[in-house]
Hints:
single chain; mainly alpha
Amino acid sequence: MKIPSLRELAEWWDRYWFTPAPTVNLALARVLTVAAQLFWLFPSLDEQLVRLESSPHFIHPQFLIRVVAAVFPREVWFTPHTITVVWWSIKALGLLSLVGLFTRVAMPLFALGSWFLVAHRFSYGDVHHSEAMFALFLLSLSLSPCSEDLSLDAWRARRAGRPPAETSPLARWPFALAHLLLAMAYLSTGMTKMVFGGLQWMNGYTLQSRTLQDALSRDIPLGIWVAQQHTLSVLLSIGTVIFELGFVFSLFLPRWRTAFFAAALAFHVGLHMVGGHGFFGHMTVVLILLICYDTPWLRPQARLAPA
C-alpha cells in the first residue's frame, strides 16, 4: 500500500474543502437555514426576559456573555429594554439575510446575534449544547458566497450588469464542515457508549430504562410502548451504536452520503418521537445537507464535484 506524499495529502485536503460547487445549492441552504432559525429555532423573547428578571446575577455566564459584560456593565446592557431592542434588531437582520439584502453584513451579524441570545439563555444555569451544531453551520454560511443566488443582492448585481458566479470554490466548505462536525459528534457519542457502557449498553435494558423515564416525564405514548418491548430495544440499541460509529464512513463514501444523511434524519426523528429529544438543530442541519449537498437537480449544468 502506497503511503500518500505530503503534496498528495495537501491536494486531497484542498479538494475536500474547495472543489468548485454551484452557488445555487449554497443559496438554497441560506434560505432554509435562516428560515429555520427565524421561524422555528429562534430564542423566545419572553424566555430571555424571564431569565433576565428572575436572577440578578449570571449563574454560569457563557464566553460571549462574559465578553459583552466586560465592555457593557450588566445594569446598562442586560436590561429588559436593551434585550428587547437587541432581540428585534437580530430578528430584522435575519429577515435581511433571508431575502438576501446586504447579506455580507447582515448575515454574519445575524449569526453572531443568534449566538448571543443562545449564550444569554444558558448563562443562568441549565446549560446545553444542542444548539452548537446549528449555530456553527449558520455562521459558516454567513462567511460564504451564499448570496450569489436566490437573493436581492444577486438581482441587483444582474441589473447592474454584474452577473453573480454560478460556481465558486468557496461554495462547498460550509457543507463539508457541517458533515465533518456531524461525523465527529456521532462518533464521540458512539465511542462514549462503548467506553462507559460496553456491550451492556446494547442489552436492551439500558435503552428501556432511559426511554421509559423520558416518555413518562414527557407523556409520550409511543415511547412508553417501545420501553416495554425488550427485543425491539435490543435491536434499536445495536442499530444506534452501528449508526453512530459508522456515520464517519460517509466522509469517505461520497456516493453514499445521501443514504447516510437520510439515516441520520430518521435517527433524530425517531429520538424525538420516542423520547422527546428535540435535537432540532441537528435535525435541521441534516435535512439541509440532504437537500443541498451533492444534489445536482437544482441546476444540472453546475453539479457539485465529488470529494
